[in-house]
Amino acid sequence: MVEKRIYEFPSTDFRSFLKKFKNIMLAVILLLALFILSLNSFYTIKEQEQAVVTTFGKATAVSEAGLHFKIPFIQKIKKVDATIKGFPIGYDEATDKTIEAESLMITRDFNFVNVDFYLEYKVSDPIKYLYASSDPETILKNMAQSNIRTIVGSYNVDSVLTDGKYEIQSKIKDSIVANLLEHDIGLMLVNITIQDSEPPTEQVMEAFKSVETAKQGKETAINNANKYRNEKLPQAKAEVDRILQQAQSEKAKRINEAEAAVARFNEMYEEYIKNPYITKERMYYEAMEEILPSLKVIIDNGEGDINKLLPLDSLTEGGNE
């Protein structure tokens, strides 16, 4: 009798091995995931740096220098340089060339001067620096230029070029600090200094003199036009009043004449109704007298057999002679 063997595949040992291998793989994957998450959960902030922590896109905290923890995929970090930075006003820092659009200014006594500044600033509030405005540095520069021109324009050229620099710097700094507090863009002014101040070039002076001459010519023309207007307006108003008064007088005269003519016509009409023929004849003769004032009219009814010689004036004048 042949003995039969029954083989089980996989065997019990192999199943146990697969189960153990599966558990090991899960543990490895879990450890790898935890390692990756741990790498993305910690961040380091260097000295002179600050970091804004955003949770779901909203700023929630500011981190200082050191090692910090954040929730992966939920929180993000935006680092901000907290060192003192600066920029020039009136010249190019790389080439040291003057930028006349920024440096050229007019003083209180109407002189022109080139003044160069250097402004230093730092971030005071990282959240407002990142989210209160789109370009805080540009805002600061425009703010500084506005204050510089206003304050330099309140001094004489001698003060700007010589002994008034420190006072001008101080006033400009105070004014910019007040503006930064008002606008609150997350920046603070560290210092602003005058680097150089000198008269502008001869070409620039001539150009500005031409502009100033044109402006004065414009003002003169405007003043002359206003003077001419002020002289002519009263005359024109007086002429208008005279014409209106004359028109009113002429109107009253014409109305009175028309009313008189109507009254006369009504009187004549009443007489005409009483004696139409006589009134017609009288009106005819009166009209002829007006039309031919030098004509002598002789009225003859045509009766009698006597021959009449007309005109009689020539005979009468001849007889007198």
UniProtKB/TrEMBL annotation:
Keywords linked to the UniProt accession: Coiled coil, Membrane, Transmembrane, Transmembrane helix
Ranges in coiled-coil conformation: 211-275
One term under GO cellular component: membrane
Positions of transmembrane segments: 21-43
UniProt-annotated location(s): Membrane
Keyword Membrane: yes
Subunit structure: HflC and HflK may interact to form a multimeric complex.
Cross-referenced PANTHER family: MODULATOR OF FTSH PROTEASE HFLK (PTHR43327:SF2), STOMATIN-LIKE PROTEIN 2, MITOCHONDRIAL (PTHR43327)
Protein name (Swiss-Prot/TrEMBL): Protein HflK
Native source species: Herbinix hemicellulosilytica
